[in-house]
Every structure is written in structure tokens, then in C-alpha cells.
Amino acid sequence: MDLLTSVLNGFSVALEPANLFFCFLGVLSGTLIGVLPGLGPLAAIAFLLPVTFYIPVVPALIMLGGIYYGAMYGGSTTSILVNIPGEAASVVTCLDGYKMARQGRAGPALGIAAIGSFFAGTLGIFILMVLAPPLARFALIFGPPEYSSLLFMALIIIAYIGSGEKIKALMMVALGVALGMIGTDQISGNARFALAIRELQDGVGIVPVAIGVFGISEVLLNVEILLRREVIKSKFKGLLPTLRDYKDSWAAILRGSLLGFFIGILPGGNPIIASFISYGVEKKVSKHPEKFGHGVIEGVAGPESANNSATSGAFVPLLSMGVPNNAVMALMLGAMIIHGVVPGPQLMDNAPQLFWGIITSMYIGNAVLLALNLPLIGLWVQVLRVPYRILFPLILIFCLIGVYAINASKFEMLLVVIFGVFGYVMRKLDYEMAPLIMGLIIGPMMEIAVRQSLLLSKGSFAIFITRPISACFLALCLVILLRSFISILRGRGRLPEAK
Amino acid sequence: MIQNLDVREFLSAIFLGVIGLLFCIGGLSVGIGSLASPGEGFLPLVAGATLLLLSLAFAIQRFSGKGPRRDVKSFWPEAKSKLRVAYVLGAILIYVAVFEWMGFALATFILFLFLLKTIDPVSWPNAFLLSFLVTLFGFFLFQVWLHVQLPEGWISWWRISRWIS
Predict the structure, then answer these.
(1) Closest to A461 in 3D by CA, of B98, B108, B36, B119
(2) Fewer beta carbons below 10 Å: N end or C end of chain B?
(3) What is the mean pLDDT of residues A372-396?
(4) CA A412, CA A169: separation in Å to the nearest integer?
(5) A256 neighbors A311 (Cβ within 8 angstroms)
(6) Average pLDDT of A435-452?
């Protein structure tokens, strides 16, 4: 089947009325949650994951994709209008977006963010279509040792790339892997560490942990200080950017889109890094770098395109190799596994409808995003005005009922609260939660791959270094770990914080 | 040395170290097998030992005052922060405890009302109206649209709704 036929098939799946509806619903709810300060894409997916369990697998995954890029875009609205990023990837948009809004140019800032995101998403999906199939074919030569090393590398990089101390991130990865070991052993079929609790025999669920550490802990952190948000009170006339705005920003959009996509593919690469690098590049190539931070449109166009494009890029390793490269993708992987879909090299051949349906639905989702965001800016501004004192009980209730809805289990509701408290305390102590989720999801996959590798090699660890691809992954891990340990021994271990 | 010790960070390392140790013991007790045929305790032991070693390294680093300098902030940013967090936590714990016994509708209504009136109070009429609307929305989303069997508890308005329809 050639690429064009596959893409057309994908469109026929994505354009089915039910799939179109769930794509729209995902984008709408993602944008809505992204607009609410404090709830980023990770929390949005965790929060809405239970809802997708009640719909078939294709629309469920299409909806989750929509939530992801909807939340990514929604985050920029709060950055521009309130100077509070809805999610971390929109932090950099505050610098120039909010300044533009204060100068009475909130409309063009929001408009260029939507148009840049649409262009980036479209370009990203086009490259994804071209790149994912050959990568999947390449991944077909992977055996258990290569997968073990690749998964190990993904864990190490997620710990290394975080903004906090590396040792803390490594501890969270190890804890996540250990928690992933709870439940029935997939090889022997025996229950481990279940403490005679029926629910634990199936393992510690991804959803209760994710909702706890991202949803509940976020609410607990936010109720500590009651902030009043000041929304820019300007009328949104002239939402579409002017010709001058387009002329100033087209190159930034193009650069941001390409840069974002390739950063998104890299293990550990995520929209946050993409947006910061794009901002740095724009400032560097600009003829007037001194104006950055004072409301230039390139400072919005570049990062917004980059973070949206990175979203598409992140799907490449997930769909073609079954390896998530960041925590959001890890949650997507978890959702796929719960739905009985095993992403990886065989997905394209075994379930082409699903593979191409998801990819093409992203394109449609981007169009929906554009159609939704430009005319509905006024509505999002109203959403921003909903006070947090009304929002937080709503978030809490839907987190708890959402978890109950999965297995009708009170124990899982309790798990949410336990992980909520854990996440709250640990986040106050500057531990990151994304490595924990990565460890929890990747741990059981890695366990099977490692045990199969050792069975194949009759107990020799040499199998991991005698196979070239595996050796390359491990060499990269070694370099990263050595660098981390040197910085830990020197008492640093913290990446310079982005200002 | 010890004057610079951030007790909370030190305690977090000890806590994680204990979890690591428990996984090591658990891994050994379920059987780690051999290298040629790893048992079900093999990776839990590796993960637990890694967590334990990292926690020890972190605790020693903090104890010796070699860690990166961070501002030791007060755990509670405002005087009332502790109370607000305690209210929210207490409320959701009670909600979980009574959810099946009291039923979705009543428990959700009371939790919403409590949170609206305690953390950053809204007026009584608004609190009642919002609590009612949210409970109704939750019912339609989960019970009617997603067909989730929510506990009826005391008020079986499911029957009332069936009777109406």
C-alpha cells in the first residue's frame, strides 16, 4: 500500500461522523482545559482519560490526540491574556504575547498563535506521514535487547532533560519502575506485592496515579494561595493579523515548525524545550533583538508554532516504535494499552485504519482548532473569568468520579487521594512527576524485554552490548549518566533554569 | 554541615529509601531466579536497589551540605494555606469514604457545597445552585451519556428519572 492510498484510507476513517465528533470534542475540551491556568496537557489527558474508556478505540485515541493539541493551544490564550501560562510550553509566549495584549494587540497575538499552530501542525503531520512508516520498518529489526536499551534510554533521558535536580528525577524514575512491578507478573502469571488487595492484582493503575499526581496535587497547590486573575479588558476587534504581521512572522512560523518537529521526535524532546529554543533562535536571527520581550509578533509566532509542531513530532517514536519520548506520550501509550492497542512497528500493518486514522485526524483536529479558536476567542475569555473557587471543586469531583467510573472501585478513588498527597508534597520539594509516570508505564514493558533478552542470551548481559543498535543506545545512556553523576558529585546536578 | 540540612529533603530521601528497601525485600521474597531465567522478583529488586542507592546518595549529599543551594522556603506560603489544604483533603477523604454508602448525588452535592463555602466562600444561593447544577451535569455525563453505574445510595433519583420518563 503506498503512502497516498494509506493517507486517503486514513482520511476516510477520520472523516467518519463519529470520529469527527470525538475529534471536535477532544479539541474543544483540550482547549477548554488548556485555557484554565494550572491544568496543562498532562493533567488534561489524565483528567479526561476515563471518559475515553467508554468509546471505541479509534475515536478514543483521536479524542486524546485532540485533547493534547487543544490543550497546547489553549495554554497560549492564558499566556497572552492573563500573563499566566496555561501549560509550561506557553511560558515563553507570556514574554511578548502579554506585552502585545497590553498594547491593545491581543487579537493579532491570539490570531498569529492560532495560525502559526495550524501551519506547524499541518507541516508536522505531513512530515510525520512521511517519516513514521520508514521508522516503523527500521524498528522491525528490533529484538528484546534493542527494546530494553531503547526503553532504558527513554527513562534516562526523561530524567536528564527535566528542569530540576537530576538525582531527584532519577529517584522518581526508579520509584515509577518499582510501582510498575506491582501486580500480576506477565510472564509467570503470579501476583506480586498485591498485599491481598484485589485491585492491586492488576497493578497500580496509570489513571489513578496520573490523576493524583497531576490533578489533585495541582488543586492542593493552587488552594494554598488564592490568586485573583486580571484578564486584559480589550475588545477583540481585528483578530486577524495585518499584512505587516504576516510579513514579520512567516519566517518565524516556518523555522519554529521545523525546529519544533525535530525536537519533538528526540527522546525527552518536548514542546517546552521546542518553544524556548525557538524563542532563542528568533531573537538571534532578528534584526531588532532588543525589541524581544516588549511585544514583537515573532516572539509569539515562533514558539507557538514550535510547541504545536513538537506535539506532532512526539507521535513519531510512539506510533512507529511504541516508545514514548515524554510523559504525555507515556500517558497516550498507557491509554492505547488499556484499549488493547500495542503501538509499535507492527501497528501500521496490523491496524492500518487505526494508524492512519489517528495521523489524519490530527490534521483535521488542527483545522478544527483554527476554526474553533478564532471565532471563539470571546468565549475563552469568558472561561478565563470563571473564578478558581468554582473551578477547583469541579476539577476534584471529576477527577474522583472519573476514576470511579473506570472500575467502580472505591480503592482506586483512595489511590487518587494518596497519590495526590504524595504528588503535592513531592512537588513542593521540587521533585518532578513526569519521570514517575514514565517509569510506571515503561517499567513493565522494560521488564518483559529485559527478561526475554536474558532468556535469549542464557543469562549473559553481553547481549546488550554485542548488538550494535542496543550498544549505541546504551553508550548514549552511559554518557548521560556519567555527566549526571559528575554534576551530582560536584554538588550541582541542576540544569540552569530558564528565565 | 547540619545547620544547612534541609530536613524536609532529607526526610523525603529517607522515605524513598524505605520504599526502595521494601521493594528489595519483596523482590527477594518472591524469587529473583537466575540470570539465565530471571524470576518475577528480578526487576523489582533492581528497581528497589536503584531507588535505595539513589536515596542514600541524596541523603548523604544533603547531610554533608554539598547539594545545590535552594532557598529554604516556608512549607506553607500563607498562614491560612495549611487550613485550606486540610479542608480540601479532609473533604475528599470523607467523600471517598461515604461515596458508595451515601450515593453519588448526595455526596457530590454536599462536597461541592462544602468546598464552595469554606475555601473562598460564595453566597449561599449561588453555592446551592452551583452544587445542584454540577451534580446534575455529572449525572448526565457519567450515568446517562457514558452509562457508568454510579452508586444510588440514599436518594435513588434514577428511579425518579425513570418514573418521569
Answers:
(1) B36
(2) C
(3) 80
(4) 25
(5) no
(6) 90
Q: What does the pLDDT look like over A85-128, one tens digit per residue?
A: 666 677 788 888 888 888 888 888 888 888 888 888 888 878 88
Q: Decide if A26 contacts A311 (C-beta within 8 A).
A: no
Q: Are the beta carbons of A498 and A161 closer than 8 angstroms?
A: no
Of the candidates A212, A204, A121, A148, which has an alpha carbon nearest to the alpha carbon of residue A464? A148
Average pLDDT, rounded, for chain A: 83
Find out whether A260 and A308 touch, Cβ atoms under 8 Å: yes
Contacts (Cβ under 8 Å, ≥6 apart) of B32:
B38, B39, B41, B42, B45
Please enumerate in sequence order all residues whose Cβ is within 8 A of that of A3, keeping only pairs 6 or more positions apart, or say none: A129, A130, A133
SS3 call for A459: coil
DSSP 8-class letter at A103? T
Q: How many CB pairs under 8 A join A and B?
A: 184
Q: What are phi and psi of B38, to 5 degrees?
A: -65, 140
The percent of residues in chain A predicted with pLDDT above 90, rounded, is 15
Give the 3-state secondary structure of residue A134.
Answer: helix
> Mean pLDDT, chain B, as a whole number?
85
Closest CB to A181: pick one of B12, B43, B84. B43
* pLDDT given for residue A497 in this prediction: 41
> How deeply is A229 buried, as exposed, middle or buried, from its count of CB atoms within 10 A (0-12, 13-18, 19+)?
middle
Mean pLDDT confidence for A370-391 = 78
More confident residue, B75 or B21: B21
Task: Give the residue carrying C-alpha cell 536571527.
Answer: A285
Residue B21 has which C-alpha cell? 528497601
Mutate to test the interface with B, among A390, A406, A463 (most CBs of B within 10 A): A390
Per residue in B61-99, pLDDT (tens digit) is 887 776 666 666 677 888 888 999 999 999 999 999 999
Dump pLDDT digits (tens) for A287-299: 888 888 888 899 9
Which candidate from A192, A216, A461 shows the least CB-CB separation from B40?
Answer: A192
**The three grid cell numbers given for residue A44, joined into one nine-digit string:** 488534561
Q: Which three cell numbers stand for residue B68?
A: 545545590
Q: Would you list the DSSP string of chain B?
A: -GGG--HHHHHHHHHHHHHHHHHHHHHHHH--B-SSSB-TTHHHHHHHHHHHHHHHHHHHHHHTT-SPP-----SSSSTTHHHHHHHHHHHHHHHHHHHHHH-HHHHHHHHHHHHHHHTS---HHHHHHHHHHHHHHHIIIIIIIS------TT--HHHHHHHH-
Q: Nearest CA to B91 among A221, A216, A426, A402?
A: A216
Q: Do residue A401 and residue B35 have CB atoms under 8 angstroms apart?
A: no
- Interface subset of A 445-484, CB within 8 angstroms of B: 446-447, 450-451, 454-455, 458-461
DSSP letters spanning A242-302: PHHHHHHHHHHHHHHHHHHHHHHHSTT--HHHHHHHHHHHHHHH-S-GGGTTS--THHHHH
CB A99 within 8 A of CB A348: no
Taking the alpha carbons of B81, B87, B92, B96 in that order, is the dihedral positive or negative? positive
Say whether A191 sits in a helix, a strand or coil: strand
Query: Is A184 in a helix, a strand, or coil?
Result: strand
Is the confidence metric ipTM above 0.95 for this complex? no
Find all residues with CB under 8 Å of A455, minimum gap 6, and list them. B36, B37, B38
For the entire predicted model, the pTM comes to 0.81
